[in-house]
């Protein structure tokens, strides 16, 4: 017969704690003292079990100072240990997740991750991505938050103050991704300028590194010449000269004798991958079935022909998708 400790029992445990009865340890955080029972904390957290193991037989209340978190967060941890409801909010979730990881409370880590995932938005997605990066147990949420940033990049730029605080390495990695969802490559360059403008004295030296990640071959020639090539930050940084010259070789290729290398062309003109596309497959063209497959990118507002050479002409067909694969069904 399975037997579990009832909620009533935990209510009694918590009541006894609040009355200071039978407590055998004192947790001190920011000068605030919490009288608790070792056995309850050990049942909740492997951290506390290891912490108390060396002095378990001592009958006197032993004080333990826990640095690095607030007394409010420690109070929530103790509430959770005694099976009392814990309210997770936008204000406390970050510190609560850090504490739950420190104390190795897996269920509380999961609860914090679920809260963060349910509340992902352009305002907080960068913070969620940065926060969960250091926790192995939050790897799935980290990937979801990172993908959210990439797919909603233009919205994030408009509303997020977190973007301005991104470390250089994170911004460099972000704007280099094929999955970065932008309607025009000009948006990426202007994002760099905004990031540098937040702390120009410390960040202006990074313009060349960041500019090298922009796919300038996708820009209009007018924008490139007027807004990129003649930008003050670009002009003052010698390292930008070669980057600008290479971009000009690609943008103005029909008018330049020296052809750009295929590697350079691919680097500067490779399209970003849209988060969603509309496919038009086969059908009729000039009274005959066609093998053409066209993809519409709603963000860029353009059609791209993605027909494979070995595709057969088809009409009167159906389709389905399975695990991100698109399957064409010939019905006749």
TrEMBL record:
PROSITE patterns in alphabetical order: BTB
Source organism of the structure: Carassius auratus (Goldfish)
Record-linked Pfam families: BACK, BTB
Positions of the BTB domain: 23-90
Source taxon at top rank: Eukaryota
Gene3D superfamilies according to UniProt: 1.25.40.420, Potassium Channel Kv1.1, Chain A (3.30.710.10)
This protein's name: Kelch-like protein 10
Coiled coil: none
InterPro entries hit by this protein: BACK, BTB/POZ_dom, SKP1/BTB/POZ_sf
Alphabetically ordered keywords of this record: Kelch repeat, Repeat
């Amino acid at each position: 017969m399975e037997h579990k400790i009832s909620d009533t029992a935990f209510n009694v445990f918590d009541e006894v704690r609040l009355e200071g009865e039978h407590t055998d340890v004192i947790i001190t955080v920011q000068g605030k003292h919490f009288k608790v029972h070792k056995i309850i904390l050990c049942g909740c957290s492997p951290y506390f079990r290891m912490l108390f193991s060396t002095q378990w037989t001592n009958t006197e209340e032993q004080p333990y100072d826990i640095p690095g978190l607030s007394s409010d967060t420690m109070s929530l941890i103790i509430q959770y240990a005694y099976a009392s409801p814990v309210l997770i909010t936008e204000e406390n979730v970050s510190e609560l997740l850090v504490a739950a990881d420190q104390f190795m409370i897996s269920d509380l880590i999961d609860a914090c991750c679920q809260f963060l995932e349910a509340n992902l938005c352009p305002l907080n997605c960068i913070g969620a991505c940065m926060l969960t990066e250091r926790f192995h147990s939050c790897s799935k949420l980290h990937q979801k938050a990172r993908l959210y940033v990439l797919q909603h990049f233009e919205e994030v730029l408009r509303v997020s103050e977190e973007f301005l605080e991104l470390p250089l390495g994170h911004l460099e990695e972000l704007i280099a991704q094929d999955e970065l969802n932008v309607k025009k490559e000009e948006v990426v360059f202007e994002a760099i300028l905004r990031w540098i403008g937040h702390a120009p004295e410390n960040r202006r030296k990074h313009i060349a590194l960041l500019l090298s990640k922009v796919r300038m071959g996708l820009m209009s020639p007018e924008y490139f010449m007027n807004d990129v090539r003649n930008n003050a930050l670009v002009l003052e940084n010698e390292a930008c000269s070669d980057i600008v010259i290479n971009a000009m070789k690609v943008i103005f290729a029909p008018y330049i004798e020296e052809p750009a290398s295929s590697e350079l062309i691919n680097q500067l003109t490779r399209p970003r991958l849209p988060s969603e596309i509309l496919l038009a497959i086969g059908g009729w063209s000039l009274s005959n079935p066609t093998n053409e497959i066209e993809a519409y990118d709603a963000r860029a507002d353009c059609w791209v022909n993605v027909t494979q050479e070995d595709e057969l002409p088809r009409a009167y067909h159906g389709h389905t998708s399975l695990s991100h694969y698109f399957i064409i069904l010939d019905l006749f």
